[in-house]
Amino acid sequence: MSQHYIRITPDRFDAVLFDLDGVLTPTAKIHSLCWKVMFDAFLSQQAAATQQPFQPFDIEHDYKQYVDGKTRYDGVRSFLESRNISLPEGTPTDPATVDTVCGLGNRKDELVQETINRCGVEPYAGSVALVRQLRKLSIHTAVVSSSANCEQVLRAAGILELFDVLVDGSIASELKLPGKPEPATFLKAAEMLSTKPDRAVVVEDAIASVQAGRAGRFGLVIGVDREGNDSILRSHGADVVVADLAELVDD
């Protein structure tokens, strides 16, 4: 789908709400690998304790189906439920060494922060070009992410100043907003930008996030397909799917 078939213009839209990981930055790869490292270590211990075969965390299936687009603790709960594993909930202050839902989530978060600090973040050039184009058109831009590291990543990528509003995992927790696939975080961002959902665009790469955009009745839901998930994103609510947001930038 090229920009000749879809244009985001101020006569139709007031704002564009972007996901972070996999849409603005390649940090989805960091997250998926950190989830795997954390869960594989936990699952290995579980297998040894229960004398059951070790079944590792699969990025292609488990990450996309149970974790991607969800808040840290929701992702832990969803995956553990898929394996019929029950753990105490714990609290957000749990140390990363504790085997609770929150402890595992915090363990994964530590891995993400260590990786970002060590390797840095380079944003997708096509995504940055689209954001700059939108801002020249006086269309508001926001980041809506389940990640609690949203501001850190945007700052590391050098693009924090390109967004008027951030609604991340920390804000969602503070305001008790349910995570994706519920549309609450997107609706909050639209409210903060003083725009109605039908005048806003959602840009997402995860199944749960596309579902959230559709559930919120946003004016346009754009799926970003970097891994051959075009039909999956469309079937879950994307109006259009692009391989890179550069496709939506005017020549």
From TrEMBL:
Molecular-function GO terms, alphabetical: hydrolase activity; metal ion binding
Superkingdom of this protein's organism: Bacteria
Similarity comment: family membership: Belongs to the HAD-like hydrolase superfamily. CbbY/CbbZ/Gph/YieH family.
UniProt keyword Disulfide bond present: no
SUPFAM superfamilies the record matches: HAD-like
Entry protein name: HAD superfamily hydrolase (TIGR01509 family)/beta-phosphoglucomutase family hydrolase
Known cofactor(s): Mg(2+)
InterPro entries linked: Beta-PGM-like (IPR051600), HAD-like_sf (IPR036412), HAD-SF_hydro_IA (IPR006439), HAD_sf (IPR023214), PGP-like_dom2 (IPR023198)
Source lineage: Bacteria, Pseudomonadati, Pseudomonadota, Betaproteobacteria, Nitrosomonadales
Assigned keywords, A-Z: Carbohydrate metabolism, Hydrolase, Magnesium, Metal-binding
